[in-house]
């Protein structure tokens, strides 16, 4: 199967997502107040919950505001949690779900992730669902198997016509300075798209994440089937992120 399925990126327009993780401040937001890329890529900045209101106020209007997680529950006795409807009320448009740090450090399973995706969609927000293999899974040649299981477990039963973004983030590439080869990215994205096309009739963009930076961004985004980037560390530096948004 190949591009007959119309699996490649549309309109040359990329989706660039910043994941600030537990970093950032009002000062950093103010630094981004004059952020002005020359290319028309979609830019989404996912800030910590405490910066959502300030992000809405300070960042230029073309930047969409995202959150990095939400509860799978709608409301109730869940101390410390934030629901998707609360995020919607704050002007959030996108929510990262199932980042590998949440899967690992907060024991999020595919089944929890699938409930989170459902509640995000119910609230008319766009989930950015992260999938990816560990170093040992890659070494054991299990990458496709792992990704399929994550897709089956977390985003399969959602109806065929939905707005969803998938981020392929090899766990071994996150924050390590390591990036898969161009061919590995191409083949893996194609595999993910073929799998997704079994369930969804809508176009599901697939982003690459893991040590993307201002130097490798153009090369990565020019790979077939890469619809954009999810960027951690390099999104905290204005000039680096500007270069990435211009790729
Ligand atoms: C991430 O954690 O989502 C990520 C892509 O991080 P980095 O860009 O720092 O590897």
List the helices and strands and how they pair.
Elements: E1 15-19, H1 26-31, E2 42-46, H2 52-58, E3 64-67, H3 84-89, E4 94-97, H4 100-105, H5 110-122, E5 126-131, H6 135-139, H7 143-154, E6 165-168, H8 182-197, E7 206-209, H9 217-221, E8 228-231, H10 238-245
Helix pairs in contact: 5-7, 7-8
Bound molecules: phosphoenolpyruvate.
- Content-based structural category: alpha/beta
Shape: globular
| Overall average residue pLDDT | 94
Give me the CATH superfamily: Aldolase class I
Structural descriptors:
single chain, 247 residues, alpha/beta, eight-stranded parallel β-barrel, globular, binds phosphoenolpyruvate
Description:
The chain is α/β, with parallel strands linked by helices. It has a single domain, classed as Aldolase class I (TIM Barrel, Alpha-Beta Barrel). It has helices at 26-31, 52-58, 84-89, 100-105, 110-122, 135-139, 143-154, 182-197, 217-221, 238-245; strands at 15-19, 42-46, 64-67, 94-97, 126-131, 165-168, 206-209, 228-231. An eight-stranded parallel β-barrel has the order 1-2-3-4-5-6-7-8, surrounded by five helices. Helix 7 (143-154) runs parallel beside helix 8 (182-197). The longest helix is centred in the last third of the chain and has 16 residues, at 182-197. Phosphoenolpyruvate binds at residues 19, 169, 174-175, 209-212, 230-234.
């Amino acid at each position: 199967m190949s591009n007959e399925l119309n699996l490649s990126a549309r309109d040359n327009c990329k989706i660039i997502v910043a994941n600030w993780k537990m970093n950032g401040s009002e000062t950093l937001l103010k630094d981004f107040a004059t952020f002005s890329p020359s290319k028309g890529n979609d830019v989404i900045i996912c800030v910590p919950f405490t910066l959502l209101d300030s992000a809405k106020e300070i960042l230029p209007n073309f930047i969409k505001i995202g959150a990095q997680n939400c509860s799978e529950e709608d409301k109730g006795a869940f101390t410390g949690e934030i629901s998707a409807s609360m995020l919607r009320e704050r002007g959030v448009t996108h929510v990262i779900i199932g980042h590998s740090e949440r899967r690992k450090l907060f024991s999020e399973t595919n089944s929890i992730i699938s409930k989170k995706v459902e509640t995000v969609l119910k609230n008319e927000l766009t989930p950015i669902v992260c999938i990816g293999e560990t170093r040992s899974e890659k070494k054991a040649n299990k990458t496709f198997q792992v990704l399929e299981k994550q897709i089956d477990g977390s985003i399969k039963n959602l109806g065929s016509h939905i707005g969803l973004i998938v981020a392929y983030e090899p766990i071994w590439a996150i924050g390590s300075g390591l990036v898969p080869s161009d061919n590995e990215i191409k083949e893996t994205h194609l595999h993910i798209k073929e799998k997704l096309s079994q369930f969804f009739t809508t176009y599901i963009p697939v982003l690459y994440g893991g040590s993307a930076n201002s130097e490798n961004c153009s090369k990565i985004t020019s790979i077939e089937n890469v619809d954009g980037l999810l960027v951690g560390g390099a999104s905290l530096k204005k000039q680096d992120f500007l270069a990435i948004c211009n790729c």
